[in-house]
Amino acid sequence: MDKAPFSSNEGKPIKCKAAICKKAGEALVIEEIQVDPPQAYEVRIKILCTSLCHSDVTFWKLDSGPLAKFPRILGHEAVGVVESIGEYVDGLKQGDVVLPVFHPYCGECRDCKSSKSNWCARFADEHLSNTRRYGMASRFRDSSGEVIHHLLYVSSFSEYTVVDIAHLVKISPEIPVDKASLLSCGVSTGVGAAWKVADVEEGSTVAIFGLGAVGLAVAEGARLRGAKQIIGVDLNSDKFELGRQFGLTDFVNPTLCGEKKISEVIREMTGGGVDYSFECVGLASLLREAFISTRTGSGKTIMLGMEKHAAPISLASFDLLKGRSVCGSLFGGLKSKVDIPILVDSYLKKELNLDSFITHELNFEEINKAFDLLEEGKSIRCILWMDK
Amino acid sequence: MENGNSSGDTKSSPKPIRCKAAVSRKAGEPLVMEEIMVAPPQPCEVRIRIICTTLCYSDITFWKLQVPPACFPRILGHEAIGVVESVGENVTEVVEGDTVLPTFMSDCGDCVDCKSHKSNLCSKFPFKVSPWMPRYENSSRFTDLNGNTLFHFLNVSSFSEYTVLDVANVVKIDPSIPPSHACLFSCGVSTGVGAAWETAKVEKGSTVVIFGLGSIGLAVAEGARLCGASRIIGVDVNPSKFELGQKFGVTEFVNSKTCENKRVSEVINEMTSGGADYCFECVGSSSLVQEAYACCRQGWGKTITLGVDQPGSQICLDSFDVLHHGKILMGCLFGGLKAKTHIPLLLKRYLSNELELDKFVTHEMKFEEINNAFQLLLEGKCIRCVLWMG
């Protein structure tokens, strides 16, 4: 069987548009850049649409420390099609629909082969490099030839990007691409956390701190697992209405709790505390509250939010001793290549609700508006279309 | 039905008992051997005659402490074995003459948590270091000879010839088991072995690190050994613990005082090429919990805390570490075991010679010498010192 003809750009750099972050906290600038061809084990993909996740905002604002790099192409939640492949890339060809995923899965190391977690020891690192296998080498160059840094091995705020195969999942072309892109980070993280990390069982009680896309996805995941009480905690009461679509049964707005702490209110509502609590904001103080909202003897707290100021987490040892546990998780404990297709399937079978996450749609050029919408708490997911 | 009366029986109801007890009257001072009065058991209570009791470091923690939940005068002690002397109304689980273990861990069998296999923390009698009997508000069964109330400790108060327990804190056991071994299941051995078996669920071939080789740590080692752990690394500041630890299955030893400029967690990460599958903290120190967390393996490492720290102490973790490295931190009381369900199972394993307990008992004394036992434990010179009643 002949191989499908590859694009005319194969092996050559591509000139295209990207939204560049030049300085911490400043509006992204849309400029022409150059994207190099994929090296061995890499794939160059054409982004169809991408969305903004709060972690992008955290990196956007970061102005010091080893993780702050400029200029940089942000974005890590997206969907694309394969434009060309590097050496040793099996199973992918031009035109395949793929999701780039910031969390690695090599499929071969001891951890990838274990069902205990989604850790990949082979590619675990501190997210300091630009490419997975080539260190600080970057595939992006601006119009004056200067290197532009990658973000989390994805960099989706660009018409084209280059992604390592450990960070790519091929998916069915049946699913509408904008819904699929949600599975590249936020929704998978939340649903996975309920499914794999907490292993929520039927009849459980759950509390979710922070009803952004990740928190709402946790609710959706808990709903699918049969949780009987799903309590959402957020400062914005509008989130309750939206949250109900994802299975929220109760809502707590901390500003309306008076003198009481959120954890007290939750313990009262549930006769002693929830089975599972999820921190989906990224605040050590909130994690503490989530922790003591759980039942003694069996309560599990899962941290999904990236701490905004790298503040340390402080837990009372007596509260821990009384049979509670806490763990953090990246990408909801999912092994991307194994689990994302399962979620795609669940959507196609009309079990998993993805549509309700999309609250806005804009052209890629309007990306800075998407930042505003998210910062103002007005959007859950805003889809940015490349070609419209 | 009246106390003790049935079908015309004229058996009289239990009376107060006058007996010896070691009373803790002031924080950190030697216990005072004195005569006290032990009231009869109320409904759902059981009065027992202690056969022998031992000293656990948690007794020392609340003996030394000068602020609540420490309180004085108090009868400490919570690891023991006894015989039922009399029962209160509505007690059907045990009768006079039964051999029982008192357990600080309540097991009512009825509440949501007791019925759940996930938890061992009874919500009908939530765990707290209380001065009172659990079922009746502000109620004590002890008074000294001047009529002053003496406070209870952890639902047990075993440093007394007689004590009163709620039926939720009593486990009936086979009387043929040597008391000096059986009493260890009432706290230390169950806590340590349970933590390895039930809470961590250590698998064959795992690498385990144990911080603190006191009775609890050694019991964890014993539990891990029986689970088939391939490496059991013991960490302690006392080098003599290594030789002792080897009897319990400890395969390697790290003296945290002689690590030169390295942190213990660094040394362990090096020894294990990236961290252990399970780390157990058996001392009761937040900074040690942090060290344990730092040397449990990324991806699936579990750190389990068993040690009881000062009230109010905080464990501080780096948020990047918690989010990114997939490690689990969990705490457990009584090894995650349900007293009435699991103690009998552990006793079976003892009777079938799987669990070896001789090595835990390093000293035996008369009850009157209890202050010597405190000294021995404070100086790190004993594991379990069994105190025999008259």
Tell me what the structure shows.
The complex is a heterodimer of chains A (388) and B (390). Chain A has two domains: 14-183 and 354-385, Medium-chain alcohol dehydrogenases, catalytic domain (Quinone Oxidoreductase, Chain A, domain 1); 187-333, NAD(P)-binding Rossmann-like Domain (Rossmann fold). With 388 residues, chain A is of the alpha/beta class. Chain A has eleven helices and 19 strands. Chain B is α/β, with parallel strands linked by helices. Chain B is built from eleven helices and 18 strands. In chain B, strands 3, 4, 5, 8, 9, 17 and 18 form a seven-stranded mixed β-sheet that branches. A six-stranded parallel β-sheet of chain B has the order 12-11-10-13-14-16, with helices on both faces. A four-stranded antiparallel β-sheet of chain B has the order 1-2-6-7, with no helix packed on it. Chain B is globular and about 70 Å long. Chain A binds chain B through residues 111, 114, 116-119, 121, 124, 271-272, 275, 284, 287, 295-298, 303-307, 310-330, and chain B through 112-113, 116, 118-121, 123, 126-127, 274, 286, 289, 298-300, 305-306, 308-309, 311-333, 336.
